[in-house]
Amino acid sequence: MRTGKVLVLVAIFSLLCPVRIVAQQASLDTLLNFIRDLSNSRYEGRLAGTDEYMEAADYVVEALQRFGVQPYNGEWAQYFETECNKIENCTFNSYVNPQNRDVYVLGRDFCCAGMTGRGYADAPVVFCGYGVDDPAFNEYAKVDAKGKIVIVLSGTPNFLPSSITDKYTYLRDKARAALRHGACALVVINMSRSCSPYEVQGAVYSGELPHLATFPIIQPTQDCGDRLLKDELMTLQEVVKKINDTQEPQSFHIRKKIEIEVNAKYHPASLTANVIGIYPGEDVKLENEYIVVGASLDHVGMQGTTCLFPGADDNASGVAALLETARLLQQSPDQPSRSIVFVLFSGGEQQHLGSRIFVSNFSPLKRIEAFVNVNAIGTGDSIAVLGNKRYPALWSVARKVDTTYCTSDIVTGYKTLPKGDAVAFDHVGIPSINITNFKGYRNAHVPSDIVENIDRQFIVKATQLLFETVLDLSFGEYQGRSNASKRIRFDR
Q1: Which class for 71: exposed (0-12), middle (13-18), buried (19 or more C-beta within 10 A)?
Q2: Angle at Cα 111 formed by Cα 318 and Cα 54, nearest 5°?
């Protein structure tokens, strides 16, 4: 009898004070399994345009299907073409005496530029600073590069105006300058602060076409660069300091010779695909409005047999969070009113080509209420949500959700624009935010970006934030483009 009275009182209280249904919680084990699988060597770094990338796409499709996501318009794949360079092998060594060589290891001491040309070179060497070839700052003026291998530094001098440095940002830009002076190959010492001086750092995008098909481009680590300039006119640290102090070119001939051989198969138009699925909304009035959730699936690939870029944080972590969001939606007692579109982008490492393809070809574009991008959420010192400068209302939804349900303590206090894959959506006026990690790129594009280095706390919190934000956007008070009445997120 007393139990019956208690149940009646609880029911009355629930009607007077609606309480949000407790949602499913993100599973660390599930997330780590996704990341471990996607960063496995079987996918060879998920390079867009390769069979291995397409196999990773198949893996993602199988997961989405298990979670009730359907192919968009009956097709999972949105095919398009991208340039692709499979680097099958590379040798690199230096010597003064041909019988006594310093042999460098691919994946440990150096890697190739993503769009290196194939070919062989065994030649004398010149050092040409940052490789700038401009009348106002000409680093080729006092050396003879003809028939030689040119060594340069990555990046550009910070004391030069952007009107000059913008022409030498990418490796193909530096390579064309070397070619103009008759060089036969280019060695670019990686001076980036985003990785260790002892670890190689890969990339795909190397600058604008045309492709330099027979011109090798090698990228040694900073530590390897130290060894290349040892016992020369200046050490690496000395020449960098002198360039900055004098703001003048400090080019010189090197007594060592270098031998390079690159075997690469370049395809100017290799087939790749975005993966697109839809989780239908349950409200007949709102099911044709969309919340799009996106993450880049591709990474920077594998070179030879010794240089794998697993891409666990970048961006298997984001893909894992997207897949886990789909699983949580399927299990949630509160189902979305709007439809959720899940997109795994290819070509993210090619200037975010896949997101631009999606935006250009998604016919109900004007019915997208918001785009939420998730990228590199497995490392860093705090969770960041970017986009509040352009879309404060959308950003506030993530902030409110975090305060109410997640307590992730997302980064605030500075204004940011959408980045990465969100840029394509921003350009057509679709409200967009990025969920990522602040200072989370210490393992960007390096072989140590493995599942063991994923921060267990961050990955769970960021995934929970993604899920709660997407669910709230699907039927909350947020209005991106439409003015339709929205369901409030309470128990009924």
Answers
A1: middle
A2: 40
Q: How many CB atoms lie within 10 A of CB 118?
A: 19
Tokens of 337: 């009113």
- The answer to whether residues 256 and 238 touch, using CB atoms and an 8 Å cutoff, is no
pLDDT score at 491: 33
Pairing between β-strand 217-220 and β-strand 185-189 as defined by DSSP bridges: parallel
Closest by CA to 317, choosing from 65, 43, 30, is 30
**Beta-strand pair 133-134/290-296:** unpaired
Strands (E), 280-367: 290-296, 302-303, 307-308, 339-345
Of 122, 220, 131, 201, which Cα lies nearest the Cα of 172?
131
Residue whose token pair is 């097709």: 75
Burial class of residue 193 in the structure, from the number of CB atoms within 10 Å of its CB (0-12 exposed, 13-18 middle, 19+ buried) = exposed
pLDDT of residue 204: 97
Structure tokens, 365:
């574009």
Q: How far is CA 177 from CA 139, 152, 167, 399, in A?
A: 10, 11, 10, 48
pLDDT (0 to 100) of residue 384: 87
Which pLDDT band, with edges at 50, 70 and 90, does 264 fall under?
Answer: very high
Say how many CA atoms lie within 13 Å of 236 toward its Cβ: 20
Give residues with Cβ within 8 angstroms of 368, minimum separation 6: 290, 291, 292, 341, 362, 425, 430, 480, 481
Report pLDDT for 22. Answer: 46
Compute the mean pLDDT over every residue in the chain, rounded to the nearest whole number: 90
Q: H or E stretch including 46?
A: none
Q: Looking at the predicted structure, is the pLDDT value of residue 23 above 70?
A: no
Q: Residue 397: phi, psi to the nearest 5? A: -65, -50
The DSSP call for residue 321 is: H
Specify burial of residue 95 (Cβ count, 10 A radius: 0-12, 13-18, 19+): middle
The answer to whether residues 177 and 152 touch, using CB atoms and an 8 Å cutoff, is no
d(CA 221, CA 153): 11
The closest alpha carbon to 130, from 91, 167, 90, belongs to: 167
Q: pTM (2 decimals)? A: 0.91
At 222, list the tokens: 């900073």
Q: Other CB atoms closer than 10 Å to residue 134's CB: what's the count?
A: 15
| Contact residues for 230 (Cβ-Cβ < 8 A; gap 6+) | none
- Give the rounded percent of residues in the chain with a pLDDT score beyond 90: 81
Are 467 and 328 in contact by the 8 Å Cβ rule? The answer is: yes
Sign of the dihedral through C-alpha 228, 230, 236, 239: negative
Number of other CB atoms surrounding residue 245 within 10 Å: 9
The number of C-alpha atoms within 13 Å of 13 and in the hemisphere containing its C-beta is 7
Can you tell me the distance from the alpha carbon of 311 to that of 323, in angstroms, rounded to the nearest whole number?
Answer: 16
pLDDT value at 464 more than 60: yes
- Among candidates 114, 109, 128, 130, which has minimal Cα distance to 212? 114
